[in-house]
Specification:
28% strand; hydrolase activity; 8-stranded parallel beta barrel; alpha/beta; 17 helices; 829 residues; single chain; TIM Barrel; Rossmann fold; 6-stranded antiparallel sheet; hydrolase; Ulvan_degrading_GH; Glycosyl hydrolase
């Protein structure tokens, strides 16, 4: 009998289809036909993928006559894909546009993203009338100012000037002065990575009219082409990447209505980086407009069309974490569990909104370049997302590719490329089954986070420089020192990031940590939180909030412990993370080693228990724990620990071991395609310019049938050297006994796969002589060296222009280890 509800144990053993990994499915123009699309969907289903998010990008087929985005042929293929996904029982989501952010040729300049820029010139004391205009036809001078002194040695403030019929009257002055014009007009930003016929400006995300126009022009067309809500589960909005946009036609009126004062006399503060209160108010107004007129309009449209809305709500425009309330499905991206990645931004909102599913765009830049990542990389990064509160994975992604394309097929400019064109794909079902079981458990119960970390919106908004980035998530993540969030984790607590718009602060948290002095509105919100019984802790900051406790980063852990006992402290907290979920009849802990070394740790739950079990997401098995919760975690290994009350169960103890003997398998043959064999010494590597699968064969003889465990002698096997790439590119740096995975067969029968640490597989061996085959598969990155593969991108650029730059292709020239690097060992008994 399991510790917790038998129904959950049964679900863990056979997890529901809805918890399967999704995959972003990139379409490179109209490059694949119906047969290609059907084959890819069937291959995804066979591998255990649960659905796709169709995303439409630049063309890779060099044919200049190919059908454009939203053409009749494009719509035929989209409907075919949606119908086939439905036939196969796969979820089908749609990105509402081609490339990102939303926009295209259908967006006129009046509805395009806008900015206010400033132009200045020196003038003398003489007055006069000055005609004013912008540099581009769409520009409009919205304000003019004069100030004392020349641009390099100005003094004092700015005096507004009246504009009549595009003419500014400049009064006479006492000496040298500076004229300043505020000019509103399109940012000029075009949709990035757009398909043929989808090129054009990004829409104004502060305009409801612009959002509605896009949805009527593109959203309706895509949804109708795919078959509507009968075929489409959700529509998707990727991260907000609208650069330099800080204007819309009625911004001044909206600012006055929302903030209660006139912004026009203060606009120069955006240019000279003055008046932090005004700058904070300006960017707060922009965030509110984007939330209401973009996210709100998307939500209304999705409800009217009968589909769900999945959103990555962060970036530019500067929307808040609590603006996720407009989404039906909440999504983040990014790893780095000790800090505040976008996954933490998203999961915190989900926890406060009572949403059990928070997905992540996973593997965006994993082990760059394309086709270099292997399952251990994918598992390691997925654990980072889970430690940040993610409960479902959306892989980034599957490049749709015609079978005739040069090996290993088409790829997006950014890794990873996670399709069946990877040589290691034979073990994909095991990888995705593991992540499916992880998702099934991690969305059950309630996430426990005693600490809320207050997001410093006021300081972040005030710090935005004109012409610079206005990414509220990123600026807040920078302004909350990572030493603070690391100290919280190290002290045995999990945390959410919180703001005044989150409804459950007093219910979810015992402490709110604040890292800088808030503005008046946030100070009032914090006072209300304190009045509800939540302790407010200021880290090296004077809050001006009654009753707040002040501490330093060094003393933060002790300060928290004086308020509430640590929830789930663990040894080696700098590399081992914990997530706690409270179940109806027990507690669940994910304990994940994020390092390349083995870690021996002990978990000390605050919640009392009399029994504990270790649940294995690889196969759904459950093992009884004994005594304290001591765990040995291999590199990038995670343990699922369930605690509760009751008598010892019927499961085999986790550390049970009878009399066992080891048998080193020293002699291995390589099996050629024609069936011939040749003896090879171990370690054995192959590093020619091909990739694929090599079968290693050994023979064993036992006097009786036995249960055995196939592992490896790990002494002395090297960690592969890898060039550092993109800073956001996750890489698993642990040594691997096989390069990169192995399917195991006994006497021709498949018995499982070895693809992750601790690199072991249980199997049954018959009495007498047996043959063990290890079908070792490599990564496919070496195939990127082929000139035929590189010509794909050169030809596309020659015909369709520069639409992307392939990432880190030079790194593909490095040797990537492939082979059998350590001596296999059978542990019998």
């Amino acid at each position: 009998m399991s510790l917790i509800t038998p129904a959950l144990a049964a679900e863990f053993a056979a997890p529901p289809a809805e918890d399967r990994v999704m995959m972003r499915w990139w379409w490179f123009g109209v490059g694949a036909d119906e047969a290609d699309l059907t084959r890819e969907l069937e291959s995804m289903r066979s591998a255990g993928i649960g659905g796709v998010e169709a995303a439409f990008l630049y063309p890779l087929d060099p044919d200049p006559r190919q059908p454009a985005f939203l053409s009749t042929r494009f719509r035929e293929l989209l409907r075919h894909a949606a119908d086939e996904a439905h036939r196969l029982g796969l979820r089908f989501d749609l990105t509402l546009g081609s490339g990102w952010s939303y926009g295209g040729a259908h967006i006129p300049s009046a509805l395009a993203a806008k900015r206010v820029r400033f132009a200045q010139r020196a003038t003398g004391p003489h007055g006069g009338d000055l005609p004013v205009h912008g540099d581009w036809p769409e520009d409009r001078v919205v304000a003019a100012y004069v100030g004392e002194g020349q641009p390099g040695d100005r003094r004092g403030g700015w005096s507004p000037l009246e504009i009549v019929d595009d003419t500014v009257h400049v009064p006479a002055g006492r000496g040298p002065r500076t004229l300043l014009l505020a000019i509103a007009g399109p940012t000029g930003q075009q949709v990035k990575r757009a398909g043929l016929g989808a090129e054009g400006p990004v829409l104004d995300h502060y305009s409801a009219e612009a959002t509605r126009h896009h949805l009527a022009s593109v959203g309706d067309a895509l949804l109708d082409a795919a078959g509507g809500p009968g075929r489409v589960h959700a529509v998707f909005c990727d991260s907000l990447e609208v650069y330099d946009a800080d204007w819309t036609d009625d911004i001044l009126a909206e600012f006055a209505r929302r903030r209660g004062y006139d912004a026009l006399p203060l606009l120069p503060a955006l240019h000279v980086h003055a008046d932090p209160v005004f700058r904070a108010d300006w960017h707060r107004t922009l965030g509110e407009l984007a939330e209401e007129r973009f996210l709100g309009e998307l939500a209304d449209w999705a409800r009217e069309r009968g589909v769900r809305l999945r959103v990555q709500n962060y970036g530019e425009p500067p929307t808040t974490a609590s603006a996720f309330r407009h989404a039906d499905l909440i999504e983040g991206e990014g790893w780095g569990w000790r800090g505040i990645p976008q996954t933490k931004w998203a999961s915190s909102a989900a926890h406060h909104l009572g949403v059990d599913v928070v997905s992540s765009e996973t593997w965006t830049w994993v082990n760059s370049p394309s086709f270099r990542a292997v399952p251990l990389d994918l598992k390691g990064e997925a654990h980072e997302h889970a430690l940040s509160g993610v409960t479902r994975f959306v892989g980034h992604g599957w490049p749709s590719s015609p079978r005739v394309a040069a090996a290993p097929g088409w790829a997006m400019y950014a890794s990873g490329a996670l399709s069946d064109r990877n040589a290691w794909w034979p073990v994909a079902p095991e990888l995705f089954a593991y992540l499916q079981r992880l998702s099934t458990l991690m969305r059950r119960g309630e996430h426990i986070a005693d600490v809320g970390v207050w997001l410093p919106y006021d300081g972040a908004r005030a710090s935005f420089a004109h012409g610079g980035e206005r990414n509220l998530w990123r600026r807040c993540a920078e302004r909350v020192p990572i030493a603070v969030t690391t100290a919280i984790r190290a002290a045995g607590y999990d945390f959410d990031v919180v703001d005044a718009g989150m409804p459950a602060i007093a219910r979810r948290h015992r402490v709110v940590v604040v890292t800088e002095r808030p503005g008046p509105d946030d100070a009032a919100a914090l006072s209300a939180v304190a009045a509800a019984g939540v302790a407010i802790v200021a880290v090296d900051a004077d809050l001006g909030v009654a009753g707040a406790r002040r501490t330093s980063i060094d003393d933060l852990g002790g300060c928290l412990a004086a308020i509430v006992a640590p929830d789930a402290p663990v040894d080696r907290a700098e590399t081992v993370g914990v997530v706690h979920r409270r179940l109806d009849d027990g507690d669940l802990y994910l304990v994940a080693n994020t390092s390349a070394s083995e870690e021996r740790v002990e978990l000390h739950p605050r919640t009392p228990f009399t029994r504990w079990e270790r649940w294995d997401a690889h196969d759904g098995s459950v093992a009884e724990g004994a005594g304290s919760i001591r765990l040995v975690l291999a590199p990038y290994e995670a343990a699922l620990v369930v605690t509760g009350d009751g008598e010892p169960g019927a499961h085999e103890p986790a550390d049970a071991a009878g009399e066992r003997r080891s048998l080193r398998l020293e002699e291995w043959d390589v099996v050629a395609p024609d069936g011939s064999t040749r003896r090879v010494p171990l370690p054995h590597r192959w590093e020619e310019d091909e990739t694929g699968t090599v079968v290693y064969r050994a023979r064993v003889s036992l006097d009786r049938a036995a249960r055995a465990e196939l592992g490896f002698d790990l002494a002395g096997w090297p960690v592969p050297a890898r060039t550092a790439t993109q800073p956001q590119s996750f890489q698993a740096h642990a040594a691997m006994p096989v390069g990169a995975v192995a399917r195991v067969r006994v006497d021709g029968q498949d018995v499982g796969a070895i693809w992750d640490a601790p690199w072991r597989l249980a199997l049954d061996l018959p009495a007498g002589a047996s043959t063990i085959d290890l079908a070792v598969s490599s990564a496919s990155v070496a195939e990127l060296r082929d000139p035929a593969w590189r010509r794909i991108f050169a030809d596309a650029e020659r015909v369709h222009g520069v639409r992307f730059t392939m990432q880190d292709i030079d790194v593909s020239d490095e040797a990537h280890p492939a082979g059998l690097f350590a001596t296999p060992v059978l542990v019998i008994g």
